[in-house]
Amino acid sequence: LLRWLSQQKETILVSIHGEIYTATPNPKIFQKVAGWVVKNKHIPLKDVEIIPCLPSVLEQVASILNKTTSLDDQTVVETDSSAARSDSQHLLDSLVDAAARRNASDIHIYTNKVSAKVKFRIYGLLTPFREIGTNKETWSVSDMLSLCASAINAEAALNNNVERQFSIEEPIDASFPIKTSLGVRKIRYSQTPHSEDGIKVVMRLLSAGGEYSSENASLEDLGYLKEQAMLIEEVSTAPSGLAVVSGPTGSGKTTTLQIVMSDIPEYKSIYTFEDPVENNIAHATQVAVKTLSENCNWIAVSKNILRLDPDVAMFGELREPEVAREIVNVATTGHLVLTTLHTDSAVGNITRLNDLGITYDRLAEPGFLKILVFQRLTPKLCTSCSMSHEELGFTRPVQIRQLERLKNTFKANLDTIRFRNTNPNNECSTCDGTGIYGRTLIAEVISVDTVARKFISKGDTDGWLIHLKKRGWVSLMDHAAMHVVSGKLCPITAESALSESFGSCGISDDGFDYDEFRRQINSYSSGTLTPINNNEVATSVTTNALSDKEIRVKAG
């Protein structure tokens, strides 16, 4: 934590690492402060660094703190600094605090010439956040722009005085901490201009703890099936190779890898490279990658990793071909590498790695690939206001068609299936009328064996999927269907996380029947509902071999 030390009319900030930030150079003050740092922070004098800042930047950094420390000749006295905070800083604090208290993962700010809007992403869904006091969904443009400028100025000084100039005309990426009523949150700030003379800002709240904290959590706590969790956990015992966890942004990929690394013995040398570092791992060396830094960007750290004598290395993101080549080198020279990708399926990791320049033959080498994982987070139903299919009252043809397909697909389990309450007059106090309360994980996990390597060498992902399904593999749709049958997920909401709809694979063995589709639409218009012919879509319920409490449903 930063400490604000002031004497006379000069302001100085000292970080826990010994950096001294100042806007007005004064050797006498430096000497006194440096001595205080050496004595109280136990930092060698040679490691104490003086960093000049603009006064405005220094003020923004100081505004992050809730306490200040005044230095006199003998003692350090704590004083309250809340009165010195500007209106924009208070607004930033209150906005982040409100997001944290509502379990939001992201804050979306959208401005144009005349107004601004704020939305929170709560359990995966965007929800308008109304202005406190007025209850209006529109905010002052000047207030929002001042809030964003305040955040960027603070980030500039926190990151070794890298100068940044807030502008609505330029994309900006930044990160900084904010203290909330629930503890400190790391904020990842991303800004882009748009055509309506405004900006779109997304602030992601990191290290929020709660249900997806890696501390004292297990993979099953996240939502993995017992069999899936066991396959992933076995990676921690592997001496070398590559493990890949993929999924869209905000799907908890890094959290999954951090849980895996928590099982790795402490006698192994572990490194993580992240942008930014999200959760602390007690026995790992965690490096914050800086994309704009010449010596600490992704390419630089990947080339330097072997010099650090690692046993295990985790790369928080894999996007560049040059980094991919370095990771292959590390994974094939006796080291275990874990990384994340952005794909839409577990087998899609193979295609993505090939796009990054790794040949199929190299990917199929024995001992290289260990496991391929794909995961998503899906909103859970609010059990207080969920509805049965008879209560929905759908009137739009597209809704009626979707409901009939779902009823046909899950016809053996209609008594247990529940739907999200989207009634605009829903006054449920549990979920604030959203029909959603919490999130759970759906995933697919592939253990790369000898047979898998044969498919990989040919790049035959379609044939591989057919083989996997014959061997009892649980796909993303299967996992989602289990949650639907148990009443945990709304089937309509769950479908938004799937690349295909429940039952869509069984519409016709000869392909999509446009005549049948046309007939159905006409029946909706005439008020005579014609059931969808899914060619007897099979829905089988069997007992999971690894858990008598889990149900496997093969839908579609």
Keywords:
single chain, 7-stranded antiparallel beta sheet, 22 strands, 556 residues
- Please identify the structural class as seen in this structure: alpha/beta
Count the E strands: 22
Choose one word for the global shape: globular
Helix content: 25-40%
Largest sheet: 7 strands, antiparallel
In short:
By secondary structure, the chain is α/β, with parallel strands linked by helices. The protein has helices spanning 27-41, 55-63, 87-101, 141-158, 219-222, 226-233, 253-262, 298-304, 321-331, 348-355, 360-363, 397-409, 450-458, 461-470, 476-485, 491-495, 514-526, and strands at residues 3-7, 10-14, 19-22, 49-52, 67-71, 76-80, 104-111, 116-122, 125-128, 138-139, 172-180, 183-194, 198-206, 241-246, 270-274, 285-288, 312-315, 336-341, 369-381, 436-447, 540-543, 551-554. The strands form four sheets. Strands 7, 8, 9, 10, 11, 12 and 13 form a seven-stranded antiparallel sheet that branches.
Topology:
Layout: E1 3-7, E2 10-14, E3 19-22, H1 27-41, E4 49-52, H2 55-63, E5 67-71, E6 76-80, H3 87-101, E7 104-111, E8 116-122, E9 125-128, E10 138-139, H4 141-158, E11 172-180, E12 183-194, E13 198-206, H5 219-222, H6 226-233, E14 241-246, H7 253-262, E15 270-274, E16 285-288, H8 298-304, E17 312-315, H9 321-331, E18 336-341, H10 348-355, H11 360-363, E19 369-381, H12 397-409, E20 436-447, H13 450-458, H14 461-470, H15 476-485, H16 491-495, H17 514-526, E21 540-543, E22 551-554
Parallel strand pairs: 1-5, 3-4, 14-18, 14-19, 15-16, 15-17, 17-18
Antiparallel strand pairs: 1-2, 2-3, 5-6, 7-8, 7-13, 8-9, 8-10, 11-12, 12-13, 19-20, 21-22
